[in-house]
């Protein structure tokens, strides 16, 4: 009897495999949907994949946040992503509970196969990440940042001289400026042209790594076990690894260059310019650093990918803001004329007495956050309950910087570019200009929880380690440019669209033209004089060919 019944069991087994298992999985998913923060209704196994927009997802997420609230869940297949649109919630999770929310979602193709876990940007939270992060901090302390200021000032003077000569190329000139600052700070060598081989190479690496991060492109993201298939059976993997080897070799060559600079300088009996790579090499010699040469080389290399395009894009947004909000240009001119006068451009030493300029830098970062979805997402590493909602370990956490920085509760009239939002009552008294009094006024909302007053550099333990370096570049470049130039709309009623931005993880305004003209002959003469002094500073930072 028992033997006879065996064959009749197999349909039951099949039935349980094909119906009961998916059903149980679905019941489990429905239970999790109900316990997690609300969001658009997911479909079984697909989640919200069909509802996700193919362009500017931050706009759709912002719209959904008005329906489902400032903390909501979207599902990519069966994987949950929490999207946050309120700065207090972002700080509650990613800062106050940072031990649980400081990891990164697994990026197998890019983080594990291409970079072999060497890049700090995508590394999971843990010892390997903290070793790298600590080194970055040690080379970006306030003391170290002071060492980089002369080159930032000199490059900003060079930028102004270039704007005098070819104002129509302003966007490329801003890119050269930020690339050169990043390379001077990272390796002590400047960039004279965006055609330099080292820049082409960096762009190639960046484009390749971004191309790996396209959802659905590699099965290995859904089935990480595939990364263990031998290379001969997986040509896709062999190709990614070959690109990884090329990038690692290029990174190590840059470190070797700095080592030979140091050795040559020793023979000559002088010193080379201070750079992050030099500081890290000294630290390695003094204290020892538990990283292979290859992994070590990724630390200075991370500066270009993370810091060049982001800073240039923010400067592009500043130009768009000034063209479309001329009263802010007048207010900046008024402050610079009163504090600096006509015979020199501003420097870092003037920072305390230029509150409006400082506020303008913050407002650009707020108004159009370049890392529009908070840069690289965070991931949680422990189950948690927030305001009664369940957030399981392994959830991806996106701070929607667009929605956060343009949240009306914190920034009334959020699309109005208004640096005065960032003036304290004391600053306002100092920066009391006619333009400020008549045109701008104050638009104060609920205070933002962070000291910077915006969320453009991210949160908690993963907050951008280059934030102060970037803010310094923005301050000195905008200070000198605004002192010297009028930046105006083109004549003939050209309409500027302040929402016309590129797609991608980092955004910048779509190309636009504007008028850039020197404010007077006296201003021109000052720029020509100062660029000569700047060339003296930059001489020590020999250029990459
Ligand atoms: C305006 C310019 C910049 C903006 C808007 C920006 C923004 C960001 C954001 C939003 C993040 C993610 C933070 C998070 O996960 O919570 C980030 C991470 C990072 N940024 Fe920046 N950044 C800028 C410039 C720089 C510069 C100049 C450097 C060079 C030192 C840099 C190095 C990094 C690194 C290494 C990370 C990864 C940190 C980690 O995962 O632990 N960034 N940045």
Structure description:
The chain has 545 residues and is mostly helical. The protein has a single domain (97-371, 411-445, 456-540), classed as Cytochrome P450 (Cytochrome p450, Orthogonal Bundle). The chain has helices at residues 2-35, 57-68, 87-96, 108-114, 127-138, 142-165, 170-187, 197-212, 235-268, 276-287, 293-324, 326-339, 355-367, 401-405, 425-430, 434-440, 467-484, 521-538, and strands spanning 71-76, 79-84, 378-379, 384-386, 389-391, 396-399, 485-488, 515-518. A hairpin with a 2-residue loop joins strand 1 and strand 2 (79-84). Helix 4 (108-114) packs across helix 9 and helix 11 (293-324) packs parallel to helix 17 (467-484). The relative contact order is 0.15. It binds protoporphyrin IX containing FE. Protoporphyrin IX containing FE is lined by residues 120-121, 133, 302-303, 306-307, 310-311, 314, 370-371, 374-376, 378, 456-459, 462-466, 469-470.
Heterogens? protoporphyrin IX containing FE
**Number of structural units classed as domains:** 1
CATH class: Mainly Alpha
Helix content: 40-55%
Taking all residues together, what is the mean pLDDT?
A: 93
Structural class: mainly alpha
Name of the CATH architecture: Orthogonal Bundle
CATH topology: Cytochrome p450
Strand order of the largest sheet: 1-2-6-3
Q: What's the CATH H-level homologous superfamily? A: Cytochrome P450
- Strand element count: 8
Please render the helix and strand layout as text.
Layout: H1 2-35, H2 57-68, E1 71-76, E2 79-84, H3 87-96, H4 108-114, H5 127-138, H6 142-165, H7 170-187, H8 197-212, H9 235-268, H10 276-287, H11 293-324, H12 326-339, H13 355-367, E3 378-379, E4 384-386, E5 389-391, E6 396-399, H14 401-405, H15 425-430, H16 434-440, H17 467-484, E7 485-488, E8 515-518, H18 521-538
Parallel strand pairs: 2-6
Antiparallel strand pairs: 1-2, 3-6, 4-5, 7-8
Helix pairs in contact: 4-9, 6-7, 6-17, 6-18, 7-11, 9-11, 11-12, 11-13, 11-17, 12-16, 13-17
The structure holds protoporphyrin IX containing FE.
């Amino acid at each position: 009897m028992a033997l006879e019944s065996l064959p009749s069991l197999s349909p039951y087994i099949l039935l349980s495999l094909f119906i009961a298992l998916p059903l149980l999985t679905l019941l489990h998913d429905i239970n999790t949907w109900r316990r997690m923060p609300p969001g658009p209704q997911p479909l079984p196994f697909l989640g919200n994949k069909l509802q996700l927009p193919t362009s500017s997802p931050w706009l759709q997420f912002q719209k959904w946040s008005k329906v489902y609230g400032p903390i909501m869940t979207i599902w990519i297949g069966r994987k949950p992503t929490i999207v946050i649109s309120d700065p207090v919630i972002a700080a509650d999770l990613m800062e106050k509970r940072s031990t649980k929310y400081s990891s990164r979602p697994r990026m197998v193709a890019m983080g594990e196969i291409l970079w072999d876990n060497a890049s700090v940007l995508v590394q999971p939270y843990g010892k390997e990440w903290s070793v790298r992060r600590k080194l970055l901090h040690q080379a970006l302390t306030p003391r170290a940042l002071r060492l980089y200021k002369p080159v930032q000032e000199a490059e900003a003077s060079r930028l102004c001289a270039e704007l005098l000569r070819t104002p129509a190329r302003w966007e490329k000139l801003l890119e050269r400026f930020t690339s050169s600052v990043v390379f001077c700070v990272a390796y002590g060598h400047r960039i004279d042209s965006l055609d330099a081989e080292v820049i082409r190479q960096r762009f190639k690496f960046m484009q390749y790594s971004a191309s790996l991060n396209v959802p659905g492109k590699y099965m290995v993201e859904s089935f990480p076990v595939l990364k263990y298939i031998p290379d001969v059976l997986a040509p896709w993997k062999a190709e990614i690894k070959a690109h990884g080897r090329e990038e690692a070799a290029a990174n190590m060559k840059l470190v070797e260059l700095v080592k030979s600079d140091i050795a040559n300088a020793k023979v000559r009996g002088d010193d080379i310019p201070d750079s992050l790579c030099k500081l890290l090499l000294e630290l390695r010699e003094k204290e020892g650093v538990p990283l292979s040469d290859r992994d070590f080389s990724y630390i200075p290399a991370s500066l270009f990918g993370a810091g060049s395009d982001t800073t240039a894009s923010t400067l592009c947004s500043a130009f768009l803001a000034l063209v479309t909000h001329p009263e802010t240009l007048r207010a900046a001119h008024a402050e610079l004329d009163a504090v600096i006068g006509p015979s020199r451009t501003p420097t870092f030493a003037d920072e305390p007495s230029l509150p409006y300029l400082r506020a303008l830098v913050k407002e650009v970062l707020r108004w159009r956050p370049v890392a529009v979805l908070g840069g690289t997402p965070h991931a949680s590493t422990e189950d948690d309950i927030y305001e009664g909602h369940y957030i399981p370990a392994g959830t991806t956490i996106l701070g929607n910087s667009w929605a956060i920085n343009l949240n009306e509760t914190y920034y009334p009239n959020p699309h109005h570019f208004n640096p005065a939002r960032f003036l304290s009552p004391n600053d306002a008294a100092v920066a009391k200009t006619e333009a400020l009094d008549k045109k701008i006024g104050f638009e104060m909302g609920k205070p933002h929880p962070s000291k910077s007053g915006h969320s453009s550099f991210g949160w908690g333990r993963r907050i951008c380690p280059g934030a102060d370096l970037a803010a310094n570049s923005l301050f000195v470049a905008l200070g000198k440019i605004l002192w010297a130039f009028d930046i105006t709309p083109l004549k003939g009623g050209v309409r500027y669209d302040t929402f016309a931005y590129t797609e991608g993880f980092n955004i910048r305004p779509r190309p636009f033209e504007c008028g850039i003209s020197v404010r007077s002959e006296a201003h021109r003469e000052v720029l020509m004089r100062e660029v000569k002094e700047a060339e003296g500073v930059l001489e020590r930072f020999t250029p990459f060919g």
